[in-house]
Amino acid sequence: MASSYPTAISSALAAISPSSPSPSPSPPPPSLSKQARFGFSTRSWRRSRMSSDRSPSPPLPDRRVVVGCGSVCVDFLAAVASYPKPDDKIRSTSLEVRGGGNAGNALTCAARLGLNPRLISKVADDAQGRSILAELEADGVDTSFLVVSKEGNSPFTYIIVDNQTKTRTCIHTPGYPPMLPRDLSQTNLLSAIDGARIVYFDGRLYETALVVAQEAVRRKIPILIDAERPREGLDDLLKLADYAVCSAKFPQAWTNAPSVASALVSVMLRLPNLRFIIVTLGSEGCIMLERSTEGDSQGEVDVDNLLEILKQRKDDVSTIPTYVSLSVSQLNAKGIGTVHGRLLLGTAEKIPPQELIDTTGAGDAFIGAILYAICADMSPEKLLPFAAQVAAANCRALGARTSLPYRTDPHLAPFLS
Q1: Per the confidence metrics, is the pTM higher than 0.90?
Q2: Which residue among 112, 214, 367, 417 is buried most deeply as judged by most CB within 10 Å?
């Protein structure tokens, strides 16, 4: 059953729109230009873009078309002094209405870094759906392949950001009707992935995603999967993946392995096509297991012991992201098996407490940076600190996209030159 969008919020969104003269505007037809479509972030984006354009732009990758299939939504973010107790009444310290959704956020990040992203998703022809389209287009995301339903509601999320614990709580309302494979014609599918360097999936819209992934495999286009948590259809997508980025809890939840390190070995054994897997650990950084088919092995080592060695060797003083790794080895997980590869430990930027505002979308920013790194053929030694730097920038403002960096950001210059 379709969810009704809150009347007060619909009115608020309509009031913000520069092209809406009344609280209940008639929906513009899909053929209208992006400038005429409903939007709430275009002016702020232009100010940021004009500021960024003053700096020289570093060279772009030769192949920079990326395709994403997954979720988009509107985020209603309320920051509070501390998370409320049951039946409490509190006031927000600040409020933002921004675009959200894993795929929408990651592709926005990729666009700001200089890639040409195309998005496959679905919204309704309502106020929030038009705002989603407008914001994505303003940031340079190609929405030509985004389906607009004449009826139903677009997805939205209420997010409570706790200023005390620096955590966020999300309450999501899915869009209706859901996206199905029949919504994406064969012509649009082929056009969407034509010339793509990589295709990315956030694990949602799994039936449509599987159709897109299978076509990408036929065309030998690499696939990156965001494995946030076990979902319906995710196993089928992972079997086709070349790269995976997952949350801290996913590897063990998916494999039942006794530790994160042994779980990564298990994932690589179960998914023989996977080139690398990265598990993100928030302020603790990330771990990458990279499969290797070449290079001398230094003998078989216990993967859990190796991870402990890397933790002891990491730089705990540096405030900027770094990494530490050892040579290619036969990485053994007791009772699971052995993988020929390399383990890398990446650190996160140490953000001063007064600058840490909101972690919403940090993982999506990390993935947007990974997409760029793959297009630019970055080595793992460069990829991990770069993605961590981009994710840290995103934590310095309220919302998943507010402080996503542009490629002219001086903090990114060492990685992009």
Answers
A1: no
A2: 367
